[in-house]
Amino acid sequence: MMTETNPGRPPSLPKTPAAGIPLLRPAAAVCALLIFGILWDAFRVLPTPGASLANLVRETLPLSGVANPVTAVILNFRSYDTLIEIAVLLLTVIGAKSATGSAGVRLKPSMPETVLSAFFRILGPLIIVIAGYLLWIGKDAPGGAFQAGSLLGAAAILGMFCTGWTPPVESGRQAAFLCLGTILFCAVGLGTYLAEPNFLHYPIPWAGALILVIETGCTVSIAAALFVLFTLCRRN
Amino acid sequence: MEPSDLYGSVGIALFALGIYGATALGQIMRRVLALNIAGTGVFMFLIAAAHRAGTPVPDPVPHAMVLTGIVVAVSATALILVLIGRLRDLSASSSAQDDRDD
Fold first, then answer.
1. Is residue B99 included in any domain, yes or no?
2. Out of A6, A54, A146, whose CB is closest to B53?
3. A134 vs A66, A92, A152, B71, B92, CA distance in Å?
4. Contact A5, B93 (CB under 8 A)
5. Which residue segment(s) compose the domain that B76 sits in?
6. pLDDT tens, residue by residue, B36-72
7. Which of A59, A94, B45, B79 has the fewest other C-beta atoms within 10 Å?
8. Where would I find the beta strands (DSSP E) of A51-204?
9. What ipTM does this complex have?
């Protein structure tokens, strides 16, 4: 319905179809209660000492190259899932960039505030060191690529706010950072496929080193992807 | 009742609440948030299920699945937000009606 635009009001989203369907809320409430009832009943009748893979993971942990069981599961035993996950992250960035397309990143470079800018000079390198520590400690304690990558992405966003820097729309370096994790992971997979007959089957003496290489690439890639997705969401 | 039973039940409740919100609410942003709540409920249930075995260390495989799930959920939410932004840009000239408040 075309009404006259009010120049003082920001553009609003179109009305969703849910607005006019009668009895939508009671029907949705009944469905939600049904879902809760069925799932809760299924959860209630599970056997009490639940089935788990904890013993299996603990037995094969010395062969995995790391000391933390969660890191071993993510990057060694179920490394194919992690490869697909990093590829999904890259696919999301590709989709978001193609959706914004020529609109690009419409961030106006703002005037850098001196206090925030000076504060970021201290905080930025500190965050990078902490992210490196999180990446390294993933072998022995909770940590690893995802935690370090999230922290680095947050640091990039913080730097963008504090110093007034805006990323360029098209950048080869940005594309290289985004693709690094997927490419490294696929390269390791290809190498293991050519060396041994199994894809992503690390040779046991090299497992720890390969995991570190993959994690470093994924950290850079996750940080770049989160930063790029954040800049594409913003509108000035 | 064990703590893991309580967390599992709360996770299932959050999932059902998120499903209700995703279907019944009117504004798009609230439905995105409801889907995120449903995802968080699923993660909570997975962590509770990992604790039920009675081994000294909880099962690490659901923990890995939750880590993967968090990253995928964040990516999907970011894509949805970018698409909402584009929808808003493209519909800026058509109407100025407010969304129904609910």
1. no
2. A54
3. 14, 25, 11, 17, 44
4. yes
5. 3-90
6. 999 999 999 999 989 887 778 888 999 999 999 999 9
7. A59
8. none
9. 0.85
Residue A146 in tokens: 């995802």
- Interface contact A96-B27, CB threshold 8 A: no
Phi first, then psi, for residue B58 (nearest 5°) are -65, 160
For residues B102 and B84, give the distance between their C-alpha atoms in angstroms, rounded to a whole number.
19
**Domain annotation covers residue B96:** no
pLDDT of B96 reads 43
A chain contacts of residue B93, beta-carbon cutoff 8 Å: 5, 11
| Amino acid letter for position B23 | T
Q: How many domains does chain B have?
A: 1
Does the distance separating the beta carbons of A36 and B96 come in below 8 Å? no
* Domain annotation covers residue B34: yes
In chain A, the residue whose alpha carbon lies closest to the alpha carbon of B89 is A11
The residue among B28, B30, B27 whose CA lies nearest residue B17 is B30
Asked if the structure places residue B102 within a domain, the reply is no
**Any idea which residue has 């293991």 for tokens?**
A192
Q: φ and ψ at B12, to 5 degrees?
A: -65, -40
Domain ranges of chain A: 67-233
pLDDT tens by residue, A185-211? 999 999 999 987 788 888 888 899 999
Q: State both tokens at B78.
A: 């970011």
Interface of B with A in 1-60 (CB under 8 A): 8-9, 12-13, 15-17, 19-20, 23-28, 31, 45, 49-50, 52-55, 57-60
Averaged pLDDT, A60-71: 91
Domain of B39, CATH number, reads 1.10.287.3510
Q: Report residue A199 as tokens.
A: 């894809």
- In this prediction, residues B3-20 reach a mean pLDDT of 94
